# Entry
Amino acid sequence: QVQVVESGGGLVQAGGSLQLSCVASGSTFGFNVMGWYRQAPGKQRELVAQITPGGTTNYADSVKGRFTISRENDTVYLLMNSLKREDTAVYYCNAKRYSSGLGWLTDWGQGTQVTVSS
# Structure
């Protein structure tokens, strides 16, 4: 059974830091691209950052220079520095995997709340 489990959210003051963790498990062939998305109230879910198995990264313009994504096997981290109120959202971990019968699939975690106060 495939599971994607996030942890590390919470309340932090503006300018502070927070690290999120995500563990993906249960895939026969492991996981390919993994990433973080976020959804603020009343807004669409958006990509924050993603990382390939080889370590290539991609960031949203709004977090470049402040957030760092890293990966160790099927665990991915998001270090968030210089947090702003507009970073407040539910953060979701996303993991892509290949299934021999179904092709490429995407699995999501349950989300973790990040709240940045002024």
